[in-house]
Each structure stands twice: as structure tokens, then as C-alpha cells.
Amino acid sequence: MRARSKPKGPTEAEKMRVLVAYKNGDDWKLVAKHNGVSVTTARRVVNNGHVNQKPRGGARMGRSKVTPAIREALERYVDQNCSYTLTAMKEFVANDFPGTELSLQTISRHLIGMLYTIKAVRIEPVTCNSDANKTKRKAFVEALLQHQQEGDYIVYYDETNFNIYCHRTLGRAKKGQRATLVLPPSKGPNLQVQCAVSAEQGLVCHQLERGSIKMAQNAAFVEEIYQAVTSSATWDANFQGKKVVIVLDNAPAHSQTEQRVQPHEDLVLLRLGPYSPMLNPIESCFSVLKAHIKRFLASRTNLLFERREFNSFLESRMRLLEEAARESLPCITQSLVIREAIFCQRNVEKALRFEDMSYGM
Asked: Does 203 lie in the same domain as 159?
């Protein structure tokens, strides 16, 4: 069995013998030699008057400017308004704690230590989580769950728009240079994309519109959704005798939809509660669609400056936007809709519990 090696350096007992010999007036160097303590270590023990090493590193007591009270104040400032700058918080600390002057780097370091990071600011309307709107949100969820239990065919419907300025917000460039994308001086008119999706079919139907969508056009598209669902093989095989439930939001174009749409006994229009995009799977589908559209336009930027065979640049650009939409719409697959519907189901449970929602997707 191997013998245990002696610990590196002298022990506290050995150094204590040296210190006691010094205090008694004996030959402390001789004591150090017989105890295996180097002259340098022995001299340090004699000069310091103790054998224990003082703790190294960490905050020095009585010298740290950022006290626990200041850390709590920093956290309170950020929770009060997430857009406060470091300079503003520096002034707040100087006012709340007279005589304390913190640098911007110190404030930033302590915020990072408290797990605060820089993020894009999202606007949340003050009425988003009011009791009235949470009540309407809960009523929508209860109706939706009832239709799901009855086995009805649920379709989510909405519209989105984009123009020639639809591009990626991040790019690459050499250090010290800007990532620049040259585009025409005007955005031009928007192209509206109306879509209806379902977990049973994926993309049910779609329609492209130049400019704004009127209420009459919206009602006509709702009828198109109904006809597309009831004429599908999925409906004939699994949903005979059930209802078509079309979920729509409260956009201006959706006003008077109940009065304008052609009535059917098996058609139900179910409106989302106010400020409830987190309960509509099509919103996330639109995010995927926009990503594909940006990819399509990124490789064809040169066509924005060519009139091609059309009578005007405007017509050429609108045709390009329509081509981008048609080429990108197949990305809305059944698996995508199912995935986003499952994701929204977590928010459905929150709405049932009358919890606050994070506005936006």
C-alpha cells in the first residue's frame, strides 16, 4: 500500500511553532528549519503575526458601491419601465442614493448578473388583459372546446399583407461597413393574402387581393372557405353531419360578416376574443409564410428594377409579389398547422384559468 504523501507546503501547526518561537524570543529560524518551513514562509508568518491566509477575491466588505438595496432599486427600475437606458438608471441611483456614483459599465454588469438582457420591445395595449377582455377570451375558448368535443370541422381564417419592402432584417457585411439593401424609393401598394387553414387539411384555400379588403370581399371568401371544406374528400369521409366552424378575428374587414355571408345550417362563425392572436394558429403560419416570401424576394431583387414585359414598373412589381406568394404558400402544410394548433392549446388552458396573456406571437 502506497504511503500517503505529505501535503504540499507546511501545515498550520508547523507555522504556529515558528510564530510561538518568535514571540518567546527563541531562534525562530532554527525552529523553521527543523519543521521544514522555508525561510520565506517563516518570515511572512513572523511579519504578519498569524498563520491563516486571508480570503482572496470576492467583494470587499465596506468597499462595494452596489449594495443589495441598490440592486433591488435597479430591478425595480427595469420592472417599472423596460425601456429605461443605463444613463437614466444612473441618474435614478444618484437621486435615490445620495453620494453614490455608478458607472454605466457597473450598472450593465449587475443587470446581466440578475439575468436582464437586451430584447426587442413589444407593445402591449393596456386593455389586453382587462377583466372584460379576459372574460370574452374565456367564452371563445369554451365555445371552441365544445366544437372540438363534438367533432366539428374547425377552420382558422385571417389575412396578412406585404410589399416590396418585405425583406430580411439581418445581413452580412465587412467589419466597419453597413449591410445595405438597395430597393425602389417607394414601397408601393400592399398585396393582401387571405388564407384558411385547418388541422385536418392544412391550407384549405387562399386568395390574393391588391389593396385593402372590403367587407363584401371578406364575406365572399368565407363562402369560398365553406364550399372548399364541404367539397373536400376529408369532409365526405369523416365529417358528414358535423358543422363547419370558421374562426375569425375582429379586424375591420370582418365587420358585418355574420350579416353578409350566405347562411348555412352547418356553418358557424366563431369570433376570437379581443387581443387574442395567441389563440389563432394561423398567426404562426403567417410567420413561416413571410420567411419563405423573404427568401424568394432576396434572390430576385434585381427584378424590382426591371419592367419586363409589363406596361409599368408597378405592374411588374405586383406580379412579382403575387408570384412570391403563390410559390411560398405550399409551406403551410398540415403538419405545420397541427404543430401550431398544439402550441396554441397551451394558451387555451391559460384562457380557461383567466390568466393574463403575452400579447403577440
From this structure: yes
Are 154 and 198 contacting, i.e. CB atoms less than 8 angstroms apart?
yes
Phi, psi of 328 (to 5 degrees): -95, -25
Domain harbouring 152, CATH code: 3.30.420.10
- Please tell me whether residue 340 adopts helix, strand or coil conformation: helix
Residues 6+ apart with CB under 8 A from 292: 327, 328, 331
CA distance 273 to 130: 12
Residue found under cell 498563520? 51
- CA-CA-CA-CA torsion sign (213, 215, 216, 219): positive
Helix (H) or strand (E) holding 267: strand 267-271
Same domain, 202 and 90: no
In a domain, 123, yes or no: no
pLDDT of 142-195, one tens digit each?
999 999 999 999 999 999 999 999 999 889 999 999 999 999 999 999 999 999
Residues 6 or more apart whose CB falls under 8 angstroms from that of 119 comprise none
**Do both 214 and 253 map to the same domain?**
yes
Sign of CA dihedral 129, 121, 167, 343: negative
Query: Do 347 and 202 belong to one domain?
Result: yes
**Residue partners of 271: CB distance under 8 A and separation at least 6:** 140, 247, 248, 249, 250, 254
d(CA 204, CA 232): 9
**Residue 43 belongs to what domain range?**
12-48
Asked whether residue 63 carries a pLDDT value surpassing 70, the answer given is: no
